[in-house]
Amino acid sequence: MGERDDRWGGGARDGRSGGYDDRFRDGGGVNGPPRNNRWVEDERDRSAGGSGGGGGRWQDRVGDRDDWTQPLPRNEVLEAELFATSSTGGPAVQSNSGINFDKYDDIPVEATGDEAPASINTFADIKLTELVRMNIALARYDRPTPVQKYAIPFILGKRDLMACAQTGSGKTAAFLVPILNQIYEQGPVQIKNNNPRGRSKQYPLALVLAPTRELATQIYDESRKFSYRARVRPCVVYGGADVVAQMRDLSRGCHLLVATPGRLADMIDRGKIGLDCCKYLVLDEADRMLDMGFEPQIRRIVEEDNMPPTGQRQTLMFSATFPKEIQRLAQDFLDNYIFLAVGRVGSTSENITQKIVWVGEEDKRSFLLDILNAAGLDRPNDATKAESLTLVFVETKKGADALEEFLYRHGYPVTSIHGDRSQREREDALRVFRSGQCPILVATAVAARGLDIPHVKHVINFDLPSDIEEYVHRIGRTGRMGNLGLATSFFNDKNRNMVRDLVELLQEAKQELPKWLEVIASETRWGGGGGGGRGRSGGGGKRFGGGFGSRDYRQV
Fold this sequence. Notes:
By secondary structure, the chain is of the alpha/beta class. The protein has helices spanning 43-46, 56-59, 76-83, 101-104, 130-138, 146-156, 171-186, 213-226, 243-250, 261-269, 286-291, 295-304, 324-333, 364-374, 397-409, 423-435, 445-448, 468-475, 499-508, 515-527, and strands spanning 109-112, 161-164, 206-209, 234-237, 256-259, 280-283, 314-319, 338-342, 352-358, 389-394, 414-417, 440-444, 456-461, 485-491. It folds into two domains: 20-59 and 110-189 and 201-342, P-loop containing nucleotide triphosphate hydrolases (Rossmann fold, 3-Layer(aba) Sandwich); 352-547, P-loop containing nucleotide triphosphate hydrolases (Rossmann fold), CATH 3.40.50.300. It has an eight-stranded mixed β-sheet with strand order 1-8-2-7-6-3-5-4, sandwiched between helices. It has a six-stranded parallel β-sheet with strand order 9-14-13-10-12-11, with helices on both faces. The radius of gyration is 23 Å and the shape is globular. The relative contact order is 0.13. Residues 351-521 form the Helicase C-terminal domain.
């Protein structure tokens, strides 16, 4: 069902960038601009200079050739908001300092393609603008992650990229750092005059497409960090929020746009966005966007809306899996690209202990209570809860509501998210989960897709998914950045359809294989049915071959 943007109600802060108290700075009232409210007409904007691709009042300054590589004056309030780590519910910095590099550096990386640029070992190994270096330091990115070591020099080398990397691998910074660095170096571009009546049309220089509003806002939050003290203004638009507020925010200028496909298509139809100047296109979680039915909108955006054609723009595609549909998109959208596969941080990682337990439907709730009690989550006021979050997956929205109510009645600190919750409810749930106030989150897979939540120590598949790829995505929520994690899945007769894929995955990841599961897999094999679920092998050959999320199908 449709969802309204409730985040501006109430009066309590949601712990995210741009608190509710700031909503009145631009006269936005209760329908103030989503997330962008700190970028208002104040001293920061008046000193911003430059234009190019921004549109709106930024367009009035085309021809002002300020050096975009030089930082604007420091704003201590905004700096604290963007980069300070909070222990009381605010967002923690997505820094690389929490990574277990001793193990993370062992993750295999495969890069194929003609004349691929050399990888880096430190951020000092590559030429970056003063602005980017400053914000990397503020964000406490001490060392590049594996995907950053390869993707950043590839993108700075102006190469198209098809990358297999999951949320939590550092991929957001892997594309934002080089894209923004190039925008700073190139400065503003001359664009056509806007409507003189003031109904401005924005011409972003970079476009990032994401499948869900949660992932879109996470990318936007990171873009704010790397554009701090810059003349570049990021914006975000997504469905389920007030479109008028988003249009009002866009009218202030937009150089980098993060968007969900449906809402972007709507903004294009309304004449609020033009893609004529788009030099950089990112498709993040491309497989999920296709699963959600966004391929027509994506193709229309890329092929029919005045976006520069393949070869005249730089296109980056990130996906956890590469089925044939994704490979077709790559053929159509990418030019002489580099294929980058970071060993699957999750599904095949030995940092995640995967446990499969036989639990009948009628016993699931009592078994879950036993697990939570063993983890100490029944104890109130445990100071370690924020460091040991538990994520419980269920298949349906009704099931999420019912399980949350059950746990709440039994005294557990629990919250939940699913697609029928309002935007405000979803953000509140994520805030109290991240902070450890409610260290148990019950979620449907669609609602949780793309969320980057640190410190998830335990993923519980209360309901197993119907295909192995969704299982891969779910357990990848823990054991991130080389840290240890646990994934427990409840299995019974309802899950026989995926048993063979599950056994193959467990064997590949060197996990303990229960004898009873081997027996069921053998029975299914000789019975000739039920194997495989909806899993897709994509590039041909073994589904999980080589420990990588996929293979470069050009070499198959």
